[in-house]
Design goal:
single chain, alpha+beta, Arc Repressor Mutant, subunit A, three-stranded antiparallel β-sheet
């Protein structure tokens, strides 16, 4: 999907305020409401807008501690990797997990070879918004 300047502006605004009314969005983008809504629907249908969520304040939700844990898996088999993925998907306290290049480190696993932890002391920036400069 080729994005127009208006599409980019819509995405920029929606990443900051997903609850903005279509009338307000259209006004900020410089479109009338009908074409603006049509563009939003096209962006949703294309899958570029994957959904809308409520972002909770971590501290107000009594989740003050944020830790990044590196885990090195003892066994490197497809079965072990799948078991790990399933365990992570079932664990609601793990809010993110990524397989990384390098030493095959993953986040959080019960029977592990080694663990290194880093705790967040202060959040400088925590934005779910993605940069739009690289979109086609």
């Amino acid at each position: 999907m080729k994005l127009t300047r208006a599409d980019r502006k819509i995405l920029e605004i929606l990443q900051q305020d997903g609850k903005i009314s279509n009338v307000d969005l259209a006004e900020r983008v410089g479109l009338s409401p009908s074409p603006c809504l049509r563009r939003v629907k096209q962006l949703e249908a294309s899958g570029l807008i994957a959904g809308y969520v409520a972002l909770l304040d971590r501290r107000k939700a009594s989740l003050d501690l944020l830790a990044y844990v590196e885990v090195q898996v003892d066994r490197h088999s497809e079965t072990a990797a799948e078991a790990f993925k399933e365990a992570v998907l079932r664990e609601p306290l793990v809010v993110g997990c990524y397989a990384m290049t390098g030493n095959k480190r993953l986040l959080k696993m019960p029977a592990v070879k080694g663990i290194q932890s880093s705790f967040v002391l202060d959040t400088i920036k925590d934005s779910p918004a993605l940069p739009l400069d690289y979109l086609a």
